[in-house]
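Changelog-linked ticket: fe (ii) ion example.
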Amino acid sequence: MTPLRKFVAPEFVFGCGSRRLAGQYAANFGGWRVLLVSDAGVVAAGWAAEVRASLEAAGLQVEEFTAVSPNPRTDEVMAGIEVYRRHGCDVIVAVGGGSPMDCAKGISILSTNGGNIRAFEGVDKVERPGAPLICIPTTAGTSADVSQFAIITEPRQRRKLAIISKAVVPDVSLIDPETTTTMDPQLTVFTGLDALVHAVEAFVSLAHSPFLDLHSLEAVRLVRAHLPTARQYPDDLDAREQIMRAALHAGIAFSNASLGAVHAMSHSLGGAFDLPHGESNALLLEHVTAFNYSAAPERYDRIGEALGLDLRGMAAKAKADALFTAIRDFKAALGIAEGLRHRGIAHSDIGELSRNALGDACIVTNPRRAGQRDVEVIFEEAL
Ligand SMILES: [Fe+2]
């Protein structure tokens, strides 16, 4: 019998032009002063100004907070809540990739719960719902716009805090593929591969379920079919829409089924070395797959089929090898062929990286139980 499973997703509007509904939705919350959270790149691309205009056209006051790093930090969340309080804001609108959205989630938590953002690390540690939060993603992959996750870096400890709570699911997300046309090819690849990893890890997670499986497999198929085109032709709106749709499917899946060792190890890497999240995931995926395969062979085979492999008649070892090679070749075709060593990680870093990975909430649902030495070996193979 299928175990009990719950499912949480925000209200969302999917399609080109949905960003222009920001003012209407913010006004529906009864707010009058919006904190607009974004970052320098998204401001330069013009998306923050467009959303601001939509909010002002709806009669709302707007305060901006854009001091958000690519891996948002605890002190940035604390600075953001100061701006929110100083101006008496009552609604939060995040425009950007995972970083501004995760920072906005942190600010939303603190707006009603108070305290320091570090206190909310872990699963279900947020007691009160936060201020109304509208997310407008401008990358296609992190899925912070639909997920129950917020990942915040603690610079003093060189690690990331995973906050997992229904309270950080946005109230509304306006998912507009047009905003992803300003991503450069590298960011397109990193975020698209993050979506692929979300789909794979959700599908093999110990908390997987049939309802979520559909979303995971569709995301894998869409990323495989359309990410190369989105990378090569940034203005191809059809490819952009398909990848945005992939990210949405993958986000719905992982938000509810959680993740696994790739994300646990990637959070550890990102906290210590400030690597782009999608890149650190991509550098680990086939190595974690090789470690996990024996614990969930049928499920990994279905991932392989969604990636276009014909595995009929193969022995288990051959299937595992074919999947490893397919992931490696797909990454290579997207320009990712080197290992962690080329990003400044040394053998001497692996002990601490592995300890932090084992402390991450995502490791709990990895299909194969991993100990310190297991994680160290995976890091060594990914060097
Ligand atoms: Fe991710």
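Closing comment: Example verified and attached. The chain has two domains: 11-180, 183-382. The mean pLDDT is 96.
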